[in-house]
Amino acid sequence: MFYYYYVNKLTTGNPNFNHEVHKSICYYLPSESNRIYLGYFGSCLDAIREAKKYYTIAKRQNRKEAEKAKLEYENQLVQVDNEVRTELYNLKKFIKKHPKECLAIDRFGVDFVLCF
User: Fold this and answer.
1) What are phi and psi of 13, to 5 degrees?
2) Fewest CB atoms within 10 A around its CB: which of 21, 42, 99, 116?
3) Residue ranges in the chain assigned as alpha helix (H)
């Protein structure tokens, strides 16, 4: 039997984050704004083949972009971590040189330093 088939655009609605193919009579058919019309097919396998044309290349590109973004984020974290370590080092040096001007307070496991 032939049916109209659609593929969902968003992948957030399912546990494996996959694009899903639906018949036009499917109870879980996505809204019109969240689906792409694939065609009129006699089997779901034909519809799946058509859906793969839309998303196989896009997934590869998205994976590369995600890996690049993750690497940039990790580099930013390392840079911020290094900046924080440098500031702490400089603060410790200042406290050692000027102990009378600084008051260290330990409240709730957090160190505060007041410098006058």
Assistant:
1) -85, 0
2) 116
3) 44-97
Domain count, the chain: 1
Q: What share of the chain is helix, strand, coil (3-state, %, to 5)?
A: 50, 25, 25
Alpha-carbon gap, residue 94 to 107, rounded angstroms = 21
In this structure, is residue 18 part of a structural domain? yes
The values of phi and psi at residue 114, to 5°, are -110, 125
Q: For residue 109, tell me if it sits in a domain.
A: no
Alpha helix stretches (DSSP H) within 98-112: none
**Tens-binned pLDDT, residue by residue, of the chain (116 aa):** 899 999 888 876 666 777 889 999 998 888 888 888 999 999 889 998 888 888 765 566 666 776 777 788 888 888 888 888 888 888 778 777 777 666 655 554 445 555 55
Domain membership of residue 63 as a residue range = 3-92
Residue 6 near residue 39 (C-beta atoms within 8 A): no
d(CA 90, CA 71) in angstroms, rounded, equals 29
Asked, for residue 21, whether it belongs to a domain, the answer is yes
